[in-house]
Amino acid sequence: xxxxxTAKYKIDRRMGANLWGRPKSPVNRRxxxxxxxxxxxxxxxxxxxxxxxxxxxxxxxxxxLTEKQFRRIFAEAERMRGDxxxxxxxxxxxxxxxxxxxxKFTPTIFAARQFVNHCHVIVNGKRVNIPSYxxxxxxVIEVRDRSKQLAIVLQSVGLPEREVPDYxxxxxxxxTAQLQRIPAFDEVPFGAVMEPNLVVEYYAKN
Length: 206
Hints:
This protein is of the alpha+beta class. 38% of the residues lie in helices and 8% in strands. It has eight helices and five strands; from the N terminus they run H-H-H-H-H-H-E-E-E-H-E-E-H. The protein has helices at residues 8-15, 47-61, 67-79, 84-93, 96-102, 109-117, 151-157, 196-205, and strands at residues 121-123, 126-127, 140-143, 168-171, 176-179. Strand 1 and strand 2 (126-127) form a beta hairpin.
């Protein structure tokens, strides 16, 4: 399990972007970084700086994964056939916590991780408490019966700030979600601009 050590909105401010597209993000009011020197004119990023920032944004978006976790996922994407950047996004979107978040069972990716950890989720009839569990096409993800009336679930389902993407089918009457297909990069509803091609360049040089 990844332990988040930074408040999610601090991640937003550090990256200078509203990563999850949330209306309460401080970036909506203050686009500059935190700290007493935050309002100073930003220096231009080098190529390395742009690549590093792209990696940090993608890591942060999926729950501020550790470098070890993220590099392992990247290495797997690199071994697969096809475009490495597309493969990387596909693997990240297949994480169980990402599916729970996309299905709007929780309001944030961090809440989704905790939700899975606390055994509120069933996959194909079996309880799974590992957020990084790899979901495959056709798998049915369900909120446990005794968890379906939790306030966090009911409130999240009603949030108007984001929609369920086309590659996931959700039945809120049963509180189930199913991954229909592995999405392409341009299908994923990121709240901010992501550049997996720069992540590939970063790891190619480091």
